[in-house]
Amino acid sequence: MILKLYTNLINKKNEIENKNIILGEINSNNNINNNENNENSNNIDNNNKCKLGYDKENINNDNINNNNNTIISNKIIKENKKGDRNKFLGIIIVILITIFQTGFSELSSFVVTGDYNSPFMIGWFNTIFLLFSFLIEFILIKFELNKEKKELLNINNEPPQKQDTILKRFKSKFKNQIIFDNETGAETISPNGITLKKLIIISIPITILYIILNWLWVLSLSMTETSIATALYQSATVFCFFLSIIILKEKIRILKSLSILIFMGGLVGIVVATTTTTTDGDDKFPNAILGDILMIVSAFLWGLYEVLTSKFIGDANRTIVNTYMGLIGLFNLIIGIPIIIILNFIKFELFKIPDSYTFIMILVNAIVGFSVLYLIVWGLSVTSPLFVRSGELMTIPSTLIFDILFKKMKLPLLAIPGYILIVIGFVLSVFIESRQIKKKEKLKNQKGENGNEKNQKKENQQFNQFSEINL
């Protein structure tokens, strides 16, 4: 009995030990499985992290590429629009120059050949009206500020807390132009950047040049036939062509040279036809030769004025152009007063007040003259001096039409080929200028694309370095 109980206890003990061994094996297997699962999960997490990092890098690179491509495309669109706008604007300006210059020449001839023969006073009074350029610019800035205020109000539904004043916005237009070097990343101040101080310094000698050429132009109108004077004055196109090569370093091109030759052929034809058909010119204008010489000198100075204006304020913004003209008017007012006193003292040109009718004609002539010069300077800021000169050259056929319709002038048959050549030269110059503007805009777009590609590569390299450090 006791032996049987002892045997049962031993069997139960063995069963318990076996159960413990089995449970231990199960637990150990579970631990091994858990460890394997943890390792697998860790590996999966690490793989996911690497994958996420890689995807993040690709996503960021794609975003950078998309942003850069968007910026490039926007710049190209803006440059193309600007090029088309400048081309269209240049043609409109040249047409307006032709119309207003015709009226200005006829009015000036009428005034100076009348009782009020004071060339310097007429030219000085005409130039004073350039002071209105300041007023025009301030009005335009006021419109800009009001437009910005309305746009901010529409976006935020609240009035802006602080906005630029007219004077502050005016000064901001004269900040130095900053050039960014795509290779080194350095920022430098462009020597072509125009500050207000620099513009004032430039305007003083330009004003003196303008006073002299304007005086000679009005003076020669009283000494020679208007048709001859107008034709001779357009020889500024040739001076402008050669001065552009010397000062602006423009290349000599076949088509441009051809247009100049056509212009000159028409000019010579008109002068020859006019002189051969004039019989009483010596009695009416005894100093005609001196008048012709003065007109040619004035034409040379005018060509120099246009080229220097294009050099100093070419591609300038509207504010700089208006300020440039306003400064010429201001310095003309200051410099002209002592000159009038000196001319009156030496009795070269006596100071006298015109009658009411003559004063009205001088006033209208000054307004038209201001419009002409404003259009010329505006045209020089968006196109080339030669293209602007082509518009002025068109005053020869336009004054002819005016004289035939209103002055009942008989057209010399020998002059017809000359007028036709001038029109052909004008059309050719329009074609040349249009093609040149397209080339310039295309060159700018290519430079912009190359610069943006370099910046994109640098940004990608910097991002890759940053990603490697984080990973």
Automatic annotation (TrEMBL):
Start-end of Basic and acidic residues biased regions: 443-460
Ranges annotated as biased composition (Low complexity): 461-471
Pfam family, one: SLC35F
GO MF entries: transmembrane transporter activity
GO cellular component terms attached to this protein's record: membrane
Protein location: Membrane
Entry membrane topology: Multi-pass membrane protein
Top-rank taxon: Eukaryota
Record-annotated membrane-spanning stretches: 88-104, 124-143, 199-219, 231-248, 260-279, 285-305, 326-346, 358-379, 386-406, 412-432
Keyword Transmembrane: yes
Keywords: Membrane, Transmembrane, Transmembrane helix, Transport
Main location: membrane
Stretch list, region Disordered: 443-471
Record-stated family: Belongs to the SLC35F solute transporter family.
Protein name: EamA domain-containing protein
